[in-house]
Amino acid sequence: xxxxxxxxxxxxxxxxxxxxxxxxxxxxxxxxxxxxxxxxxxxxxxxxxxxxxxxxxxxxxxxxxxxxxxxxxxxxxxxxxxxxxxxxxxxxxxxxxxxxxxxxxxxxxxxxxxxxxxxxxxxxxxxxxxxxxxxxxxxxxxxxxxxxx
Length: 149
Hints:
The chain has 6 helices and 6 strands. 45% of the residues lie in helices and 20% in strands. It is elongated, with a radius of gyration of 17 Å. The two termini are 19 Å apart.
């Protein structure tokens, strides 16, 4: 749950200029994620989010400059989000808990996995499109090892 919440927070600050924790809590609530102020403060610290000034001088939250994308790394998400996998040819279907496929797909997309051409995410199903059948087998093996399957 924490990893999914972190991924959602990162997506929200990418999409919106978030000026306060209260605004961020409201955005999270609108996405169906309720958090306390204390939990949100810990999340902001864990994600190393900082306030930066926009051109008008108003401060908003931003991810650290070393962060490569709006999603945590695959190895952080896989243990809790990969429930099962099945593939054919270059296609790998990954089952996740409801509402989790986008986070996992984003992590694969931003993670620069050379074997992956791209992903298509539904609610609880992720389609991973590999470059070849051999690449699909390798992706499934790597994901399976990360997920402990």
